[in-house]
């Protein structure tokens, strides 16, 4: 691998013995086309290094947000954790075992909900539960499904199909489906990105409420500073791509349970927010400048 | 502020509009007017000899039509059958040939769709055979099968297989990546993914392929029957030999009507499997 480090001052965290997930020196390279045929036809492309030198230790029961300018490879990183995209170099460990592919120990919430349109709310959950644990009894499955529909506040909509639901309700189904398989880690890829502002705010508070009940480890990709501050214990800020890396990790000290009003009273709130704003603004400006120049 | 004001404009919209402003009523009126003018033109034209000599009048044709639909099932020898019998013969041939074609095309399409190698390997055959006119197969069918009934079914089979095959392949090959990712993250087996995700996701495409195939089967059967004997196609050919133009017009109308019914059946089925997706 010709992964030339552009910047070696990336914060390499101390390896933690208690970490649930360890991301070590991970890089993602999208291979170019360098064969003779591509050269002759003028379609040759160089390798593209999306992210590199990613080191991150995640303790159990923490809510981690990853924030960064568009196109910095946040989703690529999450897809590698989910096992949907192969890791180019480095390794990702879950409870000490390296991730080699997708698995039900990680539940995924998709930006576009990714519900099966031909299945009802209940059937969407049943498909997940039955796929993950085909040997469990019907009774146990029914109970799990009922509990999770209740957890996200969708009781009464069990027999509806996704096209009959609003965007906010669809994403509740997405969250219920991801939790119903009882994963060790919940992965969320801009879960509220496709929602309008009011629904988004409401669903963020719902996620905070649900998180308080289960305290599962969560890794969430987001664009929103307020969202990250409301929900996270730690916020990972990434630099712009290509060869994006972790710029800084912020600890969020607000006591839980949280809500939008009380965290704004906290003395650290505005300093954290200003820090994130200046980071995102700087990176985004650099992206725009590179685009204009290129 | 503004919300406290009552909005009289809103109330007026809810009042029922006059009947002649309803879109459906107006469309129906235009339809009836066009039909009336057409029949009038036909009746007057035929009576005053504006067309080729021997063209029947509208009223004569409608009388014939009424006679045929009120006496659908009679039998006076093989060349004088009620139109109901001929319709059933045609429908039976279509049903057998079309069912066989679907039974082959849907599983084969799924198989080709899930494997990029199979897709590239089979695509040339499909693309070569698809544009061949169904009637080009007729002599071959007659030579190989030596039976007009089986040849008719063979023609339906060979011409209605392609749209279903192509649409099924397309649908299966283009399943939304999100659904496949969900299946992958849950650790679903390949078989479970195909049965529970890929096939239901491709179902709208499969059904629209079946709909196009049915349309083609119904187009082809009439042409094929002209050369075979019995069936609606043969009925038209026979009436041409009798130079009975009203009966030909009656048959054309009935063929159109049955085709319309079959198509609406599949349109309803398409709606049933769409679940809010538009295709």
UniProtKB/TrEMBL annotation, chain A:
It is a peripheral membrane protein. One of its GO terms (molecular function) is ATP hydrolysis activity. It comes from the Bacteria. Residues 21-265 form the ABC transporter domain. Keywords: ATP-binding, Cell membrane, Membrane, Nucleotide-binding, Translocase, Transport. InterPro entries: AAA+_ATPase, ABC_transporter-like_ATP-bd, ABC_transporter-like_CS, ABC_transporter_ATP-bind, NO3_transporter_ATP-bd-like, P-loop_NTPase. It is found in: Cell inner membrane. The keyword Nucleus does not apply. GO terms for cellular component: plasma membrane. Pfam families: ABC_tran (PF00005). The keyword ATP-binding applies. Belongs to the ABC transporter superfamily. Nitrate/nitrite/cyanate uptake transporter (NitT) (TC 3.A.1.16) family. This is Sulfate ABC transporter ATP-binding protein.
């Amino acid at each position: 691998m010709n992964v030339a480090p552009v910047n070696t001052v990336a914060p390499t965290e101390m390896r933690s013995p208690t970490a649930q997930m360890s991301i070590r020196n991970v890089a993602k390279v999208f291979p170019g086309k360098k064969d003779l045929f591509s050269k002759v036809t003028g379609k040759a492309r160089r390798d593209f290094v999306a992210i590199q030198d990613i080191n991150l230790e995640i303790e159990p029961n923490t809510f981690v947000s990853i924030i960064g300018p568009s196109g910095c490879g946040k989703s690529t990183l999450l897809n590698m954790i989910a096992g949907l995209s192969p890791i180019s170099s480095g390794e990702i460990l879950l409870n000490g075992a390296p991730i080699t592919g997708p698995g039900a120990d990680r539940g995924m919430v998709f930006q576009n909900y990714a519900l099966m349109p031909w299945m009802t709310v209940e059937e969407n959950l049943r498909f997940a539960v039955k796929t993950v644990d085909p040997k469990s009894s019907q009774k146990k499955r029914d109970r799990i499904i009922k509990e999770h529909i209740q957890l996200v506040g969708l009781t009464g909509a069990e027999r509806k199909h996704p096209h009959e639901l609003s965007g906010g309700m669809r994403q509740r189904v997405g969250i219920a489906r991801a939790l119903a398989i009882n994963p060790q880690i919940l992965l969320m890829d801009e879960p509220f990105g496709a929602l309008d502002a009011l629904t988004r705010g409401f669903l963020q508070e719902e996620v905070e409420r649900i998180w308080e009940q289960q305290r599962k480890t969560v890794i969430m990709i987001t664009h929103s500073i307020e969202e990250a501050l409301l929900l996270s214990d730690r916020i990972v800020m990434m630099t712009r791509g290509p060869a994006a890396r972790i710029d800084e990790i912020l600890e969020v000290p607000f006591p839980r349970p949280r809500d939008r009003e009380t965290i704004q009273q906290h003395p650290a709130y505005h300093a954290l927010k200003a820090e994130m704003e200046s980071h995102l603004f700087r990176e985004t400006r650099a992206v725009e400048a590179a685009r204009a120049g290129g | 502020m503004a919300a406290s004001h009552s909005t009289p404009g809103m109330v007026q919209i809810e009042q029922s509009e006059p009947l002649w402003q309803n879109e459906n009523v107006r469309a129906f009126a235009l339809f009836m007017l066009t039909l009336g003018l057409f029949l009038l033109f036909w009746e007057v034209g035929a009576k005053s000899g504006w067309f080729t000599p021997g063209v029947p009048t509208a009223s004569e044709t409608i009388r014939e039509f009424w006679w045929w639909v009120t006496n659908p099932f009679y039998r006076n020898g093989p060349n004088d059958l009620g139109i109901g019998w001929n319709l059933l013969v045609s429908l039976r041939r279509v049903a057998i040939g079309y069912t066989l074609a679907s039974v082959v095309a849907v599983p084969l399409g799924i198989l080709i769709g899930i494997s990029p190698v199979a897709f590239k390997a089979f695509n040339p055959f499909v693309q070569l055979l698809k544009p061949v006119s169904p009637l080009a197969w007729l002599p071959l069918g007659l030579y190989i099968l030596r039976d007009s009934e089986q040849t008719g079914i063979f023609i339906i089979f060979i011409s209605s297989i392609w749209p279903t095959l192509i649409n099924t392949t397309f649908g299966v090959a283009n399943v939304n990546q999100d659904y496949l990712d969900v299946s992958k993250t849950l650790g679903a087996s390949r078989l479970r993914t195909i049965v529970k995700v890929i096939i239901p996701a491709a179902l709208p495409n499969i059904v629209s392929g079946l709909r196009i195939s049915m349309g083609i089967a119904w187009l082809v059967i009439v042409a094929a029957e002209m050369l075979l004997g019995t069936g609606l196609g043969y009925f038209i050919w026979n009436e041409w030999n009798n130079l009975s133009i009203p009966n030909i017009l009656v048959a054309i109308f009935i063929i159109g009507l049955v085709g319309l019914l079959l198509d609406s059946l599949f349109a309803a089925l398409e709606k049933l499997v769409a679940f809010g997706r538009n295709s």
